[in-house]
Write a sequence for this structure.
């Protein structure tokens, strides 16, 4: 361990990807600050998972940022939360898309990074096995990186040089799981399902479950997810 | 009035610039949605002003978005709120700078825009008479515009085409005030001071007051601001 560790912020949803990202950042030697967002009831299990994972990895601080998406009530956001469709396999943007989500998340991550003096902001997005959200594409992250240089003191004064880190961007879900296995990630701690039941069991049919199941199958790693018995 | 008015979001702080922006958008024929942020006690008078102004301009909806910057406590943000320096005139970033503020504000504005189907997002930033915040420079807004195309469904599917509108970007404060006069803006409704006293009177000495006073002086318009008697 060095005297002055480099700080990193990790966007931590409590899911498979963000947990792998945290394990990766930790392995790289960063002093880790986890950032989660509370933005709806559906995410209670996810946030509980995020808390356990942050604790497991002994992050320096875990910030749960309340984001009032309920103020958008009457919008598609609220309706979206009611109906989660099964996996379609179509190459189009699903209704589970939350408007400008990664832009909002990364912006708040950037604000915290500037406050902390943390130069590296990790996000576990993938552009391979993903739900075709526009803000998961490599070009989006390149544009955000360009923005960061102009949005902060960095662009005016010498000092911090912020970097958006996307180590999973070009990995399949199976490759991410294999990376996590090498890093010793216990995926039973993580939650991916969009619509867990009241016992916290995964539905096995939503977009997120489908990608997760496929990932474990292809990776050869045993899937530790608790699926609902039907 | 057209049958289907174009919708616009206006970031409304309750200050001189954002109010001029709202008047401008209204004059352009937009159906206006005002977006303010509640992010600290100092802004109570500002938010009250924003409410009055939003009502005055009969916006379709005024959303006050709570932004928990207090979760960054222990950071410079909190300390910053305690000490507001006098106007320095220096070409450097003052300590009143809020990390990544316009990035966060515009991101949430973009999310709301996508929900509402509002293509135009107005922000009353100026790169002439301003406090040298990095996120008020033209290059910052250009980078955000580039991001917007990639961050939203727009970049993937046909449909909405979001635009960050900065009508005051190249105006001096005096030019903004003259524009406002043409649009019939009552500037006594607006609040600019960083440190109003308990009676809501402006300090006349902070960065924001100094730029405002200078603007009124140069514009020839009578300054309606209530300054603290010293």
């Amino acid at each position: 361990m060095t005297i002055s560790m480099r700080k990193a912020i990790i966007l931590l949803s409590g899911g498979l990807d963000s947990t792998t990202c945290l394990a990766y950042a930790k392995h790289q030697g960063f002093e880790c600050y986890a950032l989660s967002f509370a933005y709806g009831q559906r995410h209670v299990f996810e946030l509980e998972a995020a808390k356990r994972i942050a604790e497991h990895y002994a992050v320096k601080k875990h910030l749960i940022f309340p984001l009032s998406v309920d103020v958008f009530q009457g919008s598609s956001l609220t309706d979206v939360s009611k109906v989660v469709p099964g996996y379609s396999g179509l190459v189009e943007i699903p209704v589970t898309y939350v408007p400008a989500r990664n832009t909002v998340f990364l912006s708040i991550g950037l604000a915290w990074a500037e406050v902390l003096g943390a130069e590296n902001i990790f996000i576990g997005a993938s552009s391979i096995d993903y739900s075709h959200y526009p803000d998961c594409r490599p070009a989006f992250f390149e544009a955000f990186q360009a923005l960061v240089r102009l949005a902060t003191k960095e662009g005016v004064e010498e000092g911090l040089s912020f970097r958006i880190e996307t180590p999973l961007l070009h990995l399949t879900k199976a490759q991410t799981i294999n990376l996590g296995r090498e890093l010793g990630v216990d995926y039973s701690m993580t939650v991916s399902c969009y619509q867990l039941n009241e016992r916290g069991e995964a539905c096995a049919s939503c977009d997120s479950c489908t990608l997760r199941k496929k990932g474990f199958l292809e990776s050869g790693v045993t899937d530790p997810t608790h699926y609902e018995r039907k």
